[in-house]
Task: structure prediction
Amino acid sequence: MFRSLLSLSRTVLLYYSSVLLIGANYARAQDVETDKRLSYRETRSLFYTGQYQEALQAAIAGRKDSPWDKDWWQLEGEILTTLGRYEEAYNVLKEAVDRQPYDMRLRLSVHKAALFADDNEYAEQQLREISHIISSRNRFRIDPDTIVAIGEAALMMGIEPRLVLENFFKRAQNERNPPASAFLAKGRLALDKGDYNLASRSFQEGVEIFPENPDLWFGLAKSFINGDRTQLAINADKALSINDRHAPTLLLLADHLIDAESYDEAELNLDKILQVNDRHPEAFALKAVIAYIKEDKEQGDLYRDQALSSWSRNPNVDYLIGKKLSQKYRFAEGSSFQREALLNDPQFSPARIQLAQDLLRLDRDIEGWRLASEAHDADPYDITAYNLVSLRDKMDQFVTLETDRFRIKMAANEAPIYGQRALELLQDAYEHLSQKYDIELDHRVTVEIYPDPSDFQVRTFGMPGNPGFLGVCFGPVFTMNSPSSQRANWESVMYHEFCHVITLSITKNRMPRWLSEGISVYEERLHDSSWGQMMTVDYKERILEDRMQHIGEMSAAFMRARSDEDIQFAYYQSALVTRFLVETYGMEAMKATLKDLGDGVFMNEALARHFAPLKTLNQNFVTFAKAEAKQLGGKYVFKKDDGMLGQILQSVNPKPNYFEELEAATKLIEEESWEQAKEALETLSVQAGYIPGDANAHIHLAKCYRELGETELEKLALTKIAENEGSALRPVVRLLEIAKNEEDWHAVQQWSNRWLAINPMAPTPWQNLLDAEEVLENGEEVIKVGETLLALEPPNLASIHYRVARQYENSNVEEARKHTLMALEEAPRFRQAYQLLRDLQKEEPIPQPTQSLIDLEVFVQ
Result:
């Protein structure tokens, strides 16, 4: 098979070379215009601008006037296909191929038309004819569009995409007058292989030359589908400004709106498509998706049947339905549609890759990895398949920690450090949250912890390049970044993601993103006041300026975010809505809502049923949120109004400005005027309260106290920060230092553990925790902490082995002897360890010492 494919590849390239030499000086004849007929260019312009009926009439007239001109036949078939008149397009293009059997563009067009006319036999015949044409190496004149068509045919026959890209698409782009098809083909190939950066560059180059081509603007918009959705919207608007009935763009926007849970708007876009083509497969497929999401299976099945009405074995229909359902975390349903797609076309690579990802997210690793390998073998140039196979090789090096309820996969060097700590946290979370939400999980939860953020992104999204996520939950599986690669509170992240497991299980993965995130952040904050999110200056301004989403549109905030700050506010507002609902209507109403979602009740209906009508909820929530926002900062204002009216109002009713007073205090610190700075900051912190983030006055106040030697006040200021911001490491490090100096061993315990919740791979907190447990005579904890510290391989290995041995001395002589010998191996002159070894030998007879031990004894003596 490989040899035949290689031979075919060479034949394609030879064919290309021969026809290129003959057609190098070819230029398309200029359009001949008459008083009665539109030119080809004018007709195509009508098509580009969505004047389909006018374009069709002009194309028919042009084809009749110039039956030898293949471009008219091609354009007529394209217009008929756009209008959903598939059988007519098929017949027109069949006749065209009969007239010009060696034209590659017509062959490709009639192949597509045959599929939509449900004539699979004829479509297969066209592939054989294309292969024959290339293999026969017929020589005739060729234009750049045909170069592109040969490349597209080569891809269909399995030629390496890299060779096609270099030898056909790029060659056509480099022609003196490159066609739009070259940029379209290159961009589509990049999109198909998951290379969105290359796709974006190709389409951008295209629109610079062909700004009137809506297909190129659509391609540019689609290249941002996994990136900046703002750019997607901007470029989609440009496509629609050319043709407001452009089906691919309307479909892309519908896809985006479904992601944002704006289903009514999505349906409006799909209806616009169907007004032009009432048989559009993808439009009906997305209508089916919305119906399935709304739990209307009967209607969804009807839409799916309509999507398959023209091309009954179209794999893209079930692939698209399944992919969108999986994006809603309904992986079991999504995977079933991918299997249907593969039944229709076993070689349809997108469905195979999506199914592999679905199964991996359902914790069905064996089949999932097998499919990923098969997809990569079938298409080595697909980036997602390549990334998954590469990731599996790395995961083979992971170790697995297991209990009855949990399975953690993590790096071998990290597992002995905080693996057990993670299992204990998960078990505590399970006991609390399962009882609170009245659920007993019927499956074991898998947790995957990735030390490399790129690997986390590949496992989670299929490819790297999605920064900002600390963890993602799929239901029975959740993934997270290792604390070795992030400076966030990993215990908070793990608790947050496990809360998703609980709520997704109750709702059977049928819940909007905002509620899922809102409950998780809310529960974080309840569990530990330093976790989750709190009101900030930025959030206060957004709320008071009415820049919140309505409750019914909350999930759109995640999709429409233009910055990380927008994303973080979406999380905060989701949590604030959750808190409002629970505090106003009670936890039982929330649990009843989750149960209804699992039973198939749509979100807004469930809210109205258990809380209040959506309009009432929105009004009451705005009042609640603004009251919360006004509490931050007390009497202070947080921005300076430089306008004339603002200055007049300020002079009449002056209010203290927080940032101005903080800036004045920091200048005093720069001048080392510690007492004055302290007084200013004390006033600010008392009157404004705690302000998190960059505007925090407490961190400056703690510095003043430290410089003035007022340690007790310094501890209070630092503790205030630590109690509110669980990922803030600097105050924790200083509090641990103070506790150690004061020999406050309970405080050493507290702050060592807080440090480990942020970075468990650091030896310092483990070392201090060991000291504290030893002084407090917590023997079992000394052993656990000591053995963990040994795994980090600090420089004082001998001392730690000795201390662990001392704890084992009265409970496990064998372990005590092992650690003592290891201490002596590290430090042969360690007399205390040697004495302990003698004591252990007295306590229990041991076998005859080995020669190495005799030599060691002689050496020490």
About this structure: The radius of gyration is 34 Å. The first helix runs from residue 2 to 23.
